[in-house]
Design goal:
Blueprint (H helix, E strand, L loop, with lengths): L7 H13 L3 E3 H11 L5 H10 L3 E3 L5 E4 L15 H9 L5 E3 L1 H7 L11 E4 L12 E4 L7 E3 L2 E3 L2 H10 L10 H10 L3 H8 L4 H13 L3 H8 L9 E3 L7 E3 L4 E3 L6
Parallel strand pairs: 5-6, 9-11
Antiparallel strand pairs: 1-3, 2-3, 4-5, 7-8, 10-11
Helix pairs in contact: 1-2, 5-6, 6-8, 6-9, 9-10
């Protein structure tokens, strides 16, 4: 256990931080708290002392710190893999980003294992700051994100469509018999069609195949109605002709686990 002191000049600030429990503290938040509590220290000195005493932990994102509440019994980081994203969103709340692919599956509660590397999707044209220590994937999605634990997260229809469009970006295929049917159970045909609108035939063919494999024949039938009569051959995974063949979808599948 690491003992941390609270000088009288900082007591009101630390007490307010304990009440609010922010994951990330910005200069703007500290200035507001200092004004509310009547702290006399200049902003820079306030930050420096809170950092030195272990109440604030430096982050890679400039102008942001992680708050280490007394419950941690020391200057320990939370281990939150998204702490740098939270810092970025404090400065840019409308950033076009979302927790995506296998990270979204985990955040939505459909996977039993957390990805070893967090995955974040962003729209074209947005320049990710260097502070983000995640796997970044450029992707365009249509449906609004869901807020989970304060983070923007893809909804299930976006997850399944993205997995069909960018299977190489989606992890944990070896355990797809767990997370994929669970994710499909949480979608409606209407939302899947809305997210799939305007996408390539290859994406739709893989999506229909994934829906059928997951037991969502209703979604598969809706997707099939959008496909041309003469379907091209599509691959799910490496182009291995020894993979399983779906005649209905004309898909060679080298990713999904054997059943």
């Amino acid at each position: 256990m690491q003992t941390r002191t609270i000088p009288e000049s900082l007591a009101g600030v630390v007490q307010e931080l304990e009440l609010r429990q922010p994951a990330v503290v910005t200069r703007a938040l500290l200035n507001e708290i200092a004004s509310t509590t009547g702290a006399q220290l200049p902003g820079k000195d306030l930050v420096d002392r809170l950092v030195r005493l272990g109440w604030l932990l430096p982050l890679r994102k400039r102008g942001a710190w992680e708050f280490a509440p007394a419950a941690r019994a020391g200057r320990y980081a939370s281990g939150d893999p998204w702490i740098e994203l939270r810092a970025v969103l404090e400065h840019e709340p409308d950033a076009p980003v979302a927790v995506a692919f296998d990270s979204a599956v985990w955040q939505l509660g459909h996977a039993t294992h957390q990805p070893t590397e967090p995955v974040l999707a962003h729209r074209r044209g947005w320049r990710p700051p260097e502070a983000l220590d995640v796997r970044l994937v450029t992707f365009e999605w249509s449906l609004p994100n869901k807020v989970v634990r304060g983070l923007p997260v893809w909804r299930e229809p976006t997850v399944v469509v993205a997995a069909a469009e960018r299977p190489a970006a989606q992890g944990n295929w070896a355990n797809a018999d767990g997370w994929l049917p669970e994710t499909f159970r949480a979608v409606t045909p209407h939302d899947v069609l809305a997210e799939a609108d305007g996408r390539k035939v290859s994406t739709l063919a893989r999506l229909g195949y994934l829906a059928e494999w997951s037991g969502r024949d209703d979604v598969g039938d809706e997707i099939e109605a959008l496909l041309p009569d003469r379907l091209p051959v599509t691959f799910l995974g490496p182009r291995d002709r020894r993979a399983r063949w779906s005649r209905r979808w004309r898909v060679y599948d080298a990713l999904l686990p054997q059943r």
